[in-house]
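ugh ok fine here u go
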Amino acid sequence: MLQIRLELIMYNDVLAAFAAPAGELHCAEIRNIELTSMQIQIFDFFWSQANRFRILNDEGADELVRRRRRS
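structure:
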């Protein structure tokens, strides 16, 4: 669904973006509390939508763990 081709790291008021196309490392740091706060909100939203998986073996097999419905 999403083609994520870089890594984002957020700390304090800094949003750092890393990418390594064709093995060449690129990095940018943006110091902006509003932008960093927005990215943290986006991360938190997607994290809240995630489903838990159980690792079944060392080869990486997994299975979805069903969520319990909240009452």
